[in-house]
Design goal:
alpha/beta, about 45% helix, binds uridine-diphosphate-N-acetylglucosamine
Length: about 350
């Protein structure tokens, strides 16, 4: 059986690394890695491959940036040619980025089976491009591999038959558990010490594309900086929008590759973010996470983990950050099957000759 594994953006690389490795361990060689080129800067792409032991892509579609329609369309046109040439039995897509939906639709229309890793997450917020990508990808995928039972429940409620849903765990956490010792061995930036700094990430269009919203968030961050150093690796989308924002306790940095970033988060006092994956990583690391979004597609991280959802109002951000700084950690636990073995479960299912009985 031939598998095409698709990845395009930074979080995708972290999610595919463990099951590409699991295929290699099983000696299954008919696996092609397609990089769409959605992310292309070395700091957003190539550095991740080296650190995560992902082989160079077999095929790079080199689509680059653009509007949603432009980017999605370019991926579809290029990926269709790849599918027609390579005739895979399965296309495996991960996460919720434009590369995910573009390749899922293209493959499905060519009659190729599609497996979606990280299926069933729902924010119920249709203003997020990722929510549209998730809904459309799940609606057409043959096999829906979920990270938690809440996600499986979302799919069942949408009418997906039970045989298509498999709760396998979280491959992003497989990678975290495999790499955490290497990550902690990375030196911290000069001037900060373990547990005495916060980490900030910010890149959601809803937060950074509206100057009024962004300046409110940054005013809250300045208040946090009054109490603790804040390290801020700046995503390319956010670069150029900070309008000279500065504080003596703020450390601006280029985007970090995987190991330095994970090492930074693991030893921090708290994280302020609008990312999806970081909510999961901090839950496993036991680091308090303040999520500056009105909703999350990953509610399990709030229910059992360390995540606190605060929206993007500056007062709420300040209040939550100050509470973490004065109260310390709250009790938390790690979601079921976030145990480092999700990728093995996925490859078991995919290599099963008939994973979808009756189809
Ligand atoms: C994308 C995903 C988002 C994910 C994020 C992780 C979609 C809809 N969004 O958002 O879900 O959380 O990746 O980072 O797929 N750019 C560079 N270099 C790069 C890539 C991008 O400079 O290597 C700049 C370009 O100006 C580009 C902008 O960043 O226009 C945004 O990139 P894009 O891939 O469109 O979306 P992200 O915001 O990265």
């Amino acid at each position: 059986m031939r598998f095409l594994i698709v990845a395009g953006a930074r979080p995708n690389f972290i999610k595919i690394a463990p099951f590409m490795a699991a295929f290699r361990r099983r000696g299954h060689k008919d696996v092609l890695f397609v990089h769409t080129g959605q992310h292309y800067d070395p700091k957003m792409s190539g550095d991740f491959f080296r650190e995560l032991g992902i082989p160079e892509p077999d095929i790079n579609l080199e689509v680059g940036s653009g509007t949603h329609a432009e980017q999605t369309a370019r991926i579809m046109v290029a990926f269709e040619k790849v599918c027609e040439r390579e005739r895979p039995d399965w296309v495996v897509v991960v996460g919720d980025v434009n590369s995910t939906i573009a390749c899922a639709v293209t493959a499905k229309k060519l009659g190729i089976r599609v497996a979606h890793v990280e299926a069933g997450l729902r924010s119920r917020d249709m203003s997020m491009p990722e929510e549209i990508n998730r809904l459309c990808t799940d609606a057409i995928s043959d096999l829906l591999l979920t990270t938690d039972e809440m996600a499986s429940g979302n799919l069942r409620r949408e009418g997906v038959s039970a045989e298509r849903i498999r709760f396998v765990g979280n491959t992003m956490i497989d990678t975290l558990l495999a790499q955490i010792d290497h990550a902690r061995a990375n030196p911290l930036p000069e001037g900060i010490s373990e547990r005495h700094y916060a980490v900030l990430t910010l890149h959601r269009p809803g937060n950074v594309d509206h100057p009024g919203v962004l300046s409110g968030i940054l005013s809250a961050i300045a208040s946090v900086c009054d109490r603790i150093p804040v390290v801020f690796p700046v995503h390319p989308r956010t670069r150029g929008k900070l309008n000279g924002f500065w504080h003596p306790n703020l450390m601006l940095a280029e985007p970090l590759s995987y190991l330095p970033f994970l090492g930074l988060v693991a030893r921090s006092r708290m994280v302020l973010t609008d990312s999806g994956g970081i909510q999961e990583e901090t839950t496993v690391l036991g680091v308090p996470c303040i999520t500056m979004r009105p909703n999350t597609e990953r509610p399990i991280t709030c229910e059992v983990g360390t995540n606190i959802l605060v929206g993007n109002h500056p007062d709420r951000i300040r209040e939550a950050a100050f509470a973490v700084l004065s109260n310390g950690h709250r009790p938390h636990s790690i979601p079921e099957k976030w145990d480092g073995h999700a990728a093995e479960r996925i490859v078991d299912i995919l290599l099963d000759e008939n994973p979808l009985p009756g189809r």
